[in-house]
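FORM 7B: Structural annotation worksheet

SECTION A. Query
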Amino acid sequence: IEFKNYISTQEAFGQILNEIGKQEDKNIKRIVTTSPDVTVSTNLGGWVNQRDVFSRNSKSDIFREKNVSSAQKWRYSPHGQHIELGIAENNLFLLLGSLGISESIFGTRLLPIGTIYDTFIGRGLDALNYATYIDSRFILVGTPSGITLSHEGGAHQSIVTPSIGISQPNLCYYEPSYADELNILFFWALENIQKKDGSSVYLRLSTKKLLQPNRKLNESAKNDLIKGGYWLKEYSHKLDIVIICTGVIVGEVLKSLEAIYEDSLKIGLFIVTSPDKLYHDWIESTKNTNFISHLEYKLSAVDRSVPVITIIDGHSSSLSWIGAVKGQKVIPLGVNNFGQSGDLNELYQISEIDLNSIVDRIAKFILQ
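SECTION B. Predicted structure
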């Protein structure tokens, strides 16, 4: 899929599903989407226009009958592939849990995809826990996420969901920074939920648009994405600092690197696509001396004396454990207090994940 040069991961998700909805492949008929009241605002609108809303009885679009101008086509059909819910996040996870075990009950596998405002995952945790406990298979899309959703106020901003993604069994959490990463991870997720040794997948997305990198991902890069992370900027010689970040906050990191470019510092930038994958991979390596985790392998050329700054639009503890992998000093940046309403730059400053805060942390390391 060709994405725009300036796009958010949430918008890219909607574009991917919209393109899928145009296809006539029989496997696409197994996809069932659902959402608690945020279908359009999580970018499912294009998919629903292609595939209709499920109803036991066909119903025409009443908005069009009344000549109400709308980009949406709310057609209802027994063949519809979207289930519309009210504001009931617990019901979302009950439904995803049921759809995700359809093969064991009816002999036919469905491919469920549920979208939800990321912060409201907490409303349905009990049902989510039971869904993963019975090894139900589905894709959960939490979007928008973090305090990046600043204009909608603190009640819509998620902080602890990365920690939930890491600690919830049978649910693999990913947070892509760019559209091409999401494209790879989404289709991998569709395969993963069908594997015997697979799991459900949680994608944490954002509404913040980023300038997309001009690149073509090869097989090695794709494998790194799935394994949990890759070097965006790497030096063959000794590094002064390593910055490790997840998701949309890479935009602030890149601006900070531009700001200190003239200082001739050698700063490596590692993108974590899945704190969950990296963490459990590393834990496995502590049990098996013959196994080297993906993060250990990627950091193998970095001296343990090189300090690390970790950054995420979520609780800072989500990435702080990375220093233990090689015994490096870590300064973890993230969101440790409730979000507030306001300008995005102001909120980034309050949480100290903005350009100036990143530069300040780098300076403190250099002066030590």
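SECTION C. Observations
The longest helix spans residues 179-192. The chain has a mean pLDDT of 93.

SECTION D. Sign-off
Analyst initials: ____
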